[in-house]
Specification:
Length: 74
Amino acid sequence: MAQRYVLSIYDYCDDLANFPLRGRARDDLSPGMRVIGFRRRAIVAFLVTESDVEIHGVYYGGVDYESLIHDSLE
């Protein structure tokens, strides 16, 4: 069951290449950063550039992902 959940996150992230401007812009965290929910349980944070979509992280539940992103970019 956990393996299916992880694989579905991978598929979800792969689909971002087709529609990279989904989710909510979070330029306050980093220029080009966007976040989108996954099944009401996780947040996917990703950077959109002219040619790529880079997954920055997948954060579960009520984790303070904003602080984690700030810390990782410093």
